[in-house]
Amino acid sequence: MVTMAHNGVALPLMVEGQLMMALLTFVKQNKNTAPPNDWTSSQFEELQLHALSALSTLTPYMIDEFNQCKGPTRLLLFLEWCIGKEDYAGHGNSYYGTGGRGNKRAQMRFVLRLIRSAVSTNNSTTLLEFSDQGTIGLLTGILKSAVMSTDPNDLIDIEMQCDMLYIISGLCESDVHRKELFGEDGVDVLIAYLKSAPKKYFQGLGYDRLILACVDTIWSGVIGCYSTEDSFLQKEGLFLLLDLMEGSPRSMQNVIMSCLVDLSENSKSIVHLGTWKGHSYANLAEMLCHWWRKEERLIGAKRDEWGAITDITIPLAGDYPDYLNTPPQSGHMPSVAIMEVYENMRAKIYCLFAKIGFQNWPTLSLENHVTLVLIERYLDFKQGEVWIEFVNEITQEGWRPIEHDRDAIETIMRIIDEKTYSVVEAQQQLIDAKIQQEQLDEEDLHRKIKDTHKQKERTIQKWEGFVARTSDIKALKETKRRQLQSIDQSRQRGPIKPKTLFHAIDVKNTSTTVFLGHYVRAEGAPFELPPTIRPLRKESTRDSLFGPESPPARALRPAFTA
């Protein structure tokens, strides 16, 4: 029957024979005992699991009959029995009973698969029946228990959790009221999954499918309802989503970024996007610029070492497809330039930057700034690619536009070229400014090194002067002469008024060659003399300079060296 369901001829016969009603009769509570002349418990379990498996395939083809037989009500009652505390132990004998020995896991696994199959049809009657009977709240409670449980999950547990998340996603996708029913409890479940995602993503057992189902539920069950979005943002769900995107493979990054683009429609999310800091990136702008360059390397876009444009004719195109040699497409087929939007993340990166802004990112490197200038003009370049395709197609097909159309095309192509040249010029200005700044920094470093050496030279000269004054009587006399000359030059010139008190500013019979104050500092020779300095000679020059009648050294203040 499952194989014949794909045959349009056999399907009316199944409807006429009330096959749906016959299979749904097995969707009921199991019992450990059976009356005489009836199926045994193990036999009924195998028939029941086979019926549920067949219904998962047949229901999308017979959805009207499924609704007429009260299928949603039967499935929800059966699901409540599966999670209830009724005493039943499955036998787990058949292929479909894997993992269900001694419990109801096999029945729960297939009824969830059947509900998911019914919800995936997007039949309005089916979705209304499931939502009105509390499916969202029931599944949210089951997921909350699964998240809080400390028992390890196996393949069957992960499969059932994925099915529940996809069911909630399908029910909430197009109805704001159902998203409100999902509410704060559902957000708590999603936050718990996001927090555990980085640890379990690469553990196998289908955790990648579970995380993908979680992202899909955020996209369909949270985004679009302001109250649920606010709860998700308040619990730092956006930060967790960005952390997950940073460490995910490219296939998952594309899905998460699409989710973020829709979530960024909420003005409150802009602050979260602007303040996020990753493990490998300083901010979101740096990560997006890095991914932009990675996408361009994959498609073979022509860029220089700084990421600037090198081919102004097709600034966004890569090696494949060749936009200049694309054959004409039929009217119902999308152009190659439009199809390229779906094949990489550049359009989504542009949308995120359009929300968080292209300016006010001072911490970005030169390479990122050059890339950001290109991202800012992405939409203009994409429009230019579409016009280039249009002109190439009409040229290949031999069409000649009229004069007014030709003037309009020429004007559009000239505007596109001007925008391309402006971007190239802006990128070149950034590169030149960076090179000039590096040269200035290098010159400043050389200046600092030179000043350092000059200070060392002054220190050596000072020390050599000290050695000269203490070892050569002529140098000491010359220093004394300059000292007295400096004192004389500092005195007032011209006649002094009568009765004016004159205070001597020098101390006679001193043994120093520097100016004295109330306090002096005695300095000795350094511990290690510079290699260019000769050691002091052992001879006294005090008597030769100041005379034999100068006061003894012990009566003077400590020597202040220069």
Report a brief summary of the structure.
The protein is mostly helical and 562 residues long.
Structure in words:
It contains 23 helices and no strands. The protein has 562 residues and is mainly α. Mean pLDDT is 82; it is low at 533-562. It is 61% helix and 0% strand.
- Based on CA atoms alone, the radius of gyration comes out at 43 Å
Helix count, per DSSP? Answer: 23
Helix content: 55-70%
Helix-strand pattern, N to C?
A: HHHHHHHHHHHHHHHHHHHHHHH
| Annotation, overall tally of beta strands | 0
Structural classification: mainly alpha
Secondary structure topology:
Layout: H1 10-16, H2 19-24, H3 41-58, H4 63-68, H5 71-83, H6 105-119, H7 124-132, H8 135-148, H9 155-172, H10 176-200, H11 207-222, H12 226-234, H13 237-247, H14 250-263, H15 269-275, H16 284-299, H17 336-343, H18 346-356, H19 366-376, H20 378-396, H21 403-471, H22 473-489, H23 542-546
Helix pairs in contact: 3-6, 5-6, 6-9, 8-9, 8-10, 9-11, 10-11, 10-12, 10-13, 11-14, 13-14, 14-18, 16-19, 19-21, 20-21, 21-22
Keywords for this structure?
562 residues, mainly alpha, 23 helices, 0% strand, disordered C terminus
